[in-house]
Specification:
This protein is of the alpha/beta class and about 350 residues long. It has 13 helices and twelve strands. α2 packs parallel to α5.
Length: about 350
């Protein structure tokens, strides 16, 4: 049950120490939402800090305030201290504490009041205050609602905040092409444009700012690594840890590769399967009504959204691929239905 409006009274009672975090390997929605709240709470007289469970993609280094972000894996002692001293902990764009890795138990056991702002299905019930809406296009959309609607504080919406909210919405809607994009989404973006944000520059920083070696890695993937199974309207990519090392892959470098598989004519389900060494990570995309969140949940310890989800597998890379392909006959009929 959403009760985020109750926070208005809590936040009005003096300066609060606030920790803001999001899922590991944060994307533009997770980091943008976190930093938007960081700027908002700074402006309204609180003491916020953003702690990321891990590092994040280099193409987000332009975000206003990103230099203040603390990497839990690098500054663990400081992070633990800040979590233990916090009055409030905001958990952004994550449905469970498992999504923040080793930070999870620390947040759970903290005396701070927990706040969840998220747009994934079936979030864990760990937060005292919650703003959860799986129909929202992005968590950043909910951050806008938090400030403008629930805090009734449009006057403290700044250009920096608008830029960060826009970045989150831009990426989680696939540049406004995903079905989750609504009239409300466009109305929010129209309001953000009133702050004279440079939308084309934001798009450039996120999508047109690749390193040379990442571009060559993508070329290799497109030429050598896409397997198409026409019988199942499915395409998938497999990346070994040796290939990650060869192309000096960094956090976020394989993000978006799966979309090239989905862009192939006739493909309804696309997957990328990556050997991260300690675990095999999977990312899924789909068209129409095929629910990859359910597919990920039922078979790969994951979840997400209907058309975009992720998971993991404890098997070897070869066995994981074998498992994925072996599941497809079970879904053959559903993979014929686009709409």
């Amino acid at each position: 049950m959403n009760n985020i409006q109750l926070l208005k009274d809590v936040l009005s009672k003096g300066r609060k120490k606030i920790v803001i975090t999001s899922h590991h390997k944060p994307d533009a929605d997770a980091l943008g939402s976190s930093l938007a709240l960081y700027h908002y709470f700074k402006k309204t007289g609180h003491d916020p800090v953003v702690i990321s469970p891990t590092d994040y993609p280099g193409f987000l280094n332009w975000m206003p305030g990103q230099k203040s972000v603390i990497n839990f894996e690098v500054k663990t002692a400081l992070s633990k201290k800040l979590i233990s001293e916090a009055d409030l902990i905001f958990c952004m764009d994550m449905s469970s504490l498992e999504r923040i890795n080793d930070m999870g138990p620390l947040v759970k056991n903290s005396m701070a009041q927990k706040v969840l702002i998220d747009h994934h299905l079936e979030p864990e019930n760990f937060a005292m205050y919650r703003l959860s809406d799986p129909e929202a296009a992005a968590t950043a959309e909910l951050v806008y609602d938090f400030i403008v609607k629930y805090m009734n504080d449009e006057t403290n919406l700044t250009k920096e905040i608008a830029v960060l909210i826009y970045a989150g919405i831009l990426t989680d809607t696939g540049s406004f092409k995903y079905p989750t994009t609504t009239k409300k989404t466009h109305r929010i973006v129209a309001h953000l444009m009133d702050f004279d944000i440079k939308h084309s520059t934001i798009h450039h920083f996120i999508y047109d700012n690749s390193t040379e070696i990442k571009t060559r890695f993508l070329g290799y993937i497109l030429k050598e690594k896409i397997t198409v199974l026409k019988k199942y309207n499915t395409a998938y990519i497999v990346i070994t840890k040796e290939e990650l090392k060869k192309y000096k892959s960094r956090t976020g470098d394989t993000e978006g590769f799966v979309n090239y598989a989905l862009a192939i004519e006739g493909v309804i389900l696309a997957a990328i399967i990556v050997d991260r060494g300690e675990i095999i990570k999977l990312s899924f995309r789909s068209r129409g009504e095929f629910p990859v969140n359910e597919f990920a949940r039922d078979h790969f310890e994951g979840g997400g959204h209907k058309n975009a989800a992720g998971g993991k597998c404890p098997l070897t890379l070869d066995k994981t691929v074998e498992k994925f392909v072996g599941l497809l006959p079970e879904y053959r009929e559903k993979l014929r239905l686009i709409f």
